[in-house]
């Protein structure tokens, strides 16, 4: 016997519901259909999309299905099985309740619905194009529900033109897929991109679902369990170790009563718990699930239902902050205060044993600071009295002990062994920068016509060198110079499609999350043009070749930075995409320059760069101090 579940809400109830907004993008469709499948009691949900969801979105489940009447009624505005009266809005136990999703989707796409209830032999098929009902007829179909959404926005070309690149829309679909999958570990989920499987999540417990959905071995080793139960809220889930903090917030999920939501206010409660434990530019990972009385929250705030209003928001903030701090404290990351410990301090009793003496003050009774002759005596420079040992040391020995630098690098102005120019090589640790005045120092390097291969320079360690040019004295950051040289080399290789690859003796396996693996597939052609040789498997990449200029030790960091940057920005125009990738590889490939020949080669390559003054991220490579500037400083 068929039981009709869907009915149209009375006007009094429909008017109290936050007005729904139109479907913005394919990910909106995936979100609504997946939530409906969960509400239908499904144990298995499959999602497939093509061209970023623009040409096809297919969602199939094994839920309760719909009767013929319910299937037809589901496309009416404010038709829902989730609520019946106004009071039901404040006791929601389902994702959907407005009855607006299917009518909105049907109005801007070609929709085909196939559904069958468990106790029926035949199901029903409904076809609607652009909001116009075409047909309904019996059909042989598995129990559950299947939605096929074709040619999204085909009748609203202006809105279709606002869609992003296929890769960007695909990423948004994957984001929505993960949000639903992470709060329903007891349901199996499958995701296909252009009929190619990219995620298969069997039913399991929460921890395994997080590891399977996010992917990679690292997250499994860095999850810390959170479990706090109070009279107001129960907080469960996991947070990441501080050492696992990432440069983006892609692994931050908050749920309340099984519903994903965003809250900058509550997010700060978590970030504050990590304060001083992670670098300022990094973000912690967290997967927190709140369970609270439905009457104490309002989800009827925003049409997308990602904003939730809490009746006791300040108290919730305190509970979340305390729960995360307690979890970190149990791991020895944050010291916990034990209020039950004995506060008394054991102070020893004083006993006059005579085993101590007052230290003798070390001073010179004949010292007179106003005696200029004494102040300028040779003792002030050539001899220093050691306070600890009472011995005498020469000036170079004294400075060597004070700065811990080699004696031969100290210049004695009274020595006859000084160089003709009045200075020898010195260490950068004792170099002081001359503070400038109001006038800015020239900050552009312009090579003159002299061949740089024969140019004289003075190096300061592995990082800096000084060069004399027609413009004046130029101080160069060799690491940044190398970064700019590599940047332009990588750009040329990606543009020309020709590169030199260095084969690794043993291929390196790099663990990736599902998101990172998908991102790496998108940027792999550009990476291959720059000299990478890699294959991508389910949750890791196998790299067998790298650019000859990239340090092997920085390979994993480079790959993660490239993929995470792509996930943050999405698909960019080709030239802009290549520039960002080249900048990341150059930054990780640049290192200290050693040896006279290496420095000279770097200077030669820098002189041939299109831009020899700034790195790709705008940091100065050189500082040029003109002759006029030097003269002005020495002759104020």
The quaternary structure here is single chain
Judged by helices, strands and strand pairing, the structural class is alpha+beta
Shape designation: globular
What percentage of residues falls in helices of 4 or more residues? Answer: 25-40%
Low-confidence stretches: 11-21, 81-86, 88-98, 338-346, 374-443, 448-454
Helix run count = 19
Spatial gap, N to C terminus: 101 Å
- Please give the order of strands in the largest beta sheet: 7-6-5-8-3-2-9-10
The overall strand count is: 26
Sheet-strand content, in percent, reads 15-25%
Q: Mean pLDDT score, rounded? A: 76
**Gyration radius from CA atoms, angstroms:** 35 Å
Major beta sheet summary: 8 strands, mixed
Structure overview:
Strand 24 and strand 25 form a beta hairpin. Strands 7-6-5-8-3-2-9-10 form an eight-stranded mixed β-sheet. It has 19 helices and 26 strands. The protein is an alpha+beta fold and 636 residues long. Helix 2 runs parallel beside helix 6. About 18% of the residues have low confidence.
What's the layout of helices and strands?
Elements (H helix, E strand, L loop, with lengths): L6 E2 L2 H4 L11 H14 L4 E7 L5 E6 L6 H6 L5 E2 L20 H6 L3 E7 L6 E7 L2 E8 L4 E7 L6 H5 L4 H17 L5 E6 L2 E6 L4 H9 L2 H5 L1 E7 L3 E8 L11 E5 L2 E2 L3 H10 L12 E7 L4 E2 L10 E2 L2 H18 L41 H4 L3 H4 L1 E2 L6 E2 L1 H9 L53 E4 L3 E6 L2 E6 H19 L4 E11 L2 H17 L2 E4 L3 E8 L7 H15 L4 H16 L6 H12 L14 E5 H8 L2
Parallel strand pairs: 2-9, 13-15
Antiparallel strand pairs: 1-4, 2-3, 3-8, 5-6, 5-8, 6-7, 9-10, 11-12, 12-15, 13-14, 16-17, 18-19, 20-21, 21-22, 22-26, 23-25, 24-25
């Amino acid at each position: 016997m068929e039981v009709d579940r869907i009915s149209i809400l009375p006007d009094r109830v429909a008017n109290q519901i936050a007005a729904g907004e139109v479907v913005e993008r394919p990910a909106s469709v995936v979100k609504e259909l997946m939530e409906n499948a969960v509400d239908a009691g499904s144990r298995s949900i499959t999602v497939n999309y093509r061209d970023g969801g623009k040409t096809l979105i297919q969602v199939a489940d094994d839920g309760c299905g719909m009767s013929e009447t319910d299937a037809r009624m589901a496309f009416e505005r404010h038709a829902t099985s989730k609520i019946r009266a106004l009071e039901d809005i404040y006791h929601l136990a389902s994702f959907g309740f407005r009855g607006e999703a299917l009518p909105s989707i049907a109005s801007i796409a070609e929709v085909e619905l196939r559904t069958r209830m468990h106790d029926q032999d035949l199901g029903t098929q409904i076809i609607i194009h652009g909001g116009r009902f075409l047909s309904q007829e019996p059909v042989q179909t598995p129990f559950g529900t299947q939605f096929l959404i074709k040619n999204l926005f085909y009748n609203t070309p202006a809105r279709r033109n606002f869609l992003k690149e296929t890769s960007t829309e695909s990423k948004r679909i994957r984001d929505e897929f993960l949000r639903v999958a992470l709060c329903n570990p007891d349901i199996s989920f499958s995701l296909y991109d252009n009929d190619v499987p990219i995620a298969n999540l069997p039913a399991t417990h929460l921890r395994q679902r997080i590891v399977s959905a996010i992917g990679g071995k690292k997250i499994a080793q860095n999850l810390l369990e959170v479990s706090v139960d109070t009279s107001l809220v129960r907080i469960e889930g996991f947070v990441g170790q501080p050492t696992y903090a990432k440069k983006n917030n892609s692994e931050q999920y908050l749920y309340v009563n099984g519903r994903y939501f965003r809250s900058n206010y509550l997010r700060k409660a978590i970030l504050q718990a990590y304060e001083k434990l992670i670098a300022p530019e990094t973000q912690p990972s967290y997967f927190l699930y709140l369970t609270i009385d439905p009457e104490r929250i309002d989800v009827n705030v925003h049409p997308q239902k990602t904003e939730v209003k809490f009746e006791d928001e300040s108290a919730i903030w305190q509970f979340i902050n305390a729960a995360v701090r307690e979890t970190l404290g149990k791991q020895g990351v944050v010291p916990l205060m034990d209020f039950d410990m004995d506060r008394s301090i054991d102070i020893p009793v004083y006993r006059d044993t005579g085993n101590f003496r007052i230290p003798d003050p070390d001073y010179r009774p004949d010292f007179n600071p106003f005696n200029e002759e004494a102040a300028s005596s040779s003792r002030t420079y050539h001899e220093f009295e050691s306070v600890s040992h009472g011995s005498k040391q020469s000036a170079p020995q004294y400075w060597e002990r004070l700065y811990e630098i080699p004696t031969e690098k100290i210049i004695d102005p009274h020595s006859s062994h000084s160089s003709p120019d009045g200075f020898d090589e010195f260490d950068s640790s004792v170099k002081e920068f001359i503070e400038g005045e109001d006038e800015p120092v020239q900050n552009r390097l312009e090579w003159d016509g002299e061949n740089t291969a024969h140019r004289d320079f003075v190096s300061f360690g592995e990082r800096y060198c000084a060069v004399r040019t027609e413009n004046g004295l130029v101080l160069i950051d060799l690491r940044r110079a190398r970064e700019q040289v590599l940047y332009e080399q990588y750009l040329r290789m990606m543009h020309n499609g020709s590169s030199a690859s260095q084969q690794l003796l043993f291929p390196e396996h790099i663990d990736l999350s599902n998101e990172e693996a998908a991102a790496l597939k998108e940027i792999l052609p550009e990476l291959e043009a720059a000299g990478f040789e890699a294959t991508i498997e389910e949750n890791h990449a196998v790299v067998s070749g790298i650019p000859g200029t990239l340090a092997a030790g920085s390979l994993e960091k480079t790959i993660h930075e490239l993929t995470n940057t792509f996930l943050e920005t999405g698909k960019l125009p080709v030239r802009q995409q290549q520039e960002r990738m080249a900048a990341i590889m150059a930054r990780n490939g640049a290192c200290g320059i050693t040896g006279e020949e290496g420095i000279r080669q770097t200077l030669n390559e820098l002189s041939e760069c299109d831009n020899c003054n700034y790195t790709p991220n705008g940091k100065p490579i050189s500082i040029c101090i003109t002759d006029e500037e030097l003269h002005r400083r020495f002759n104020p």
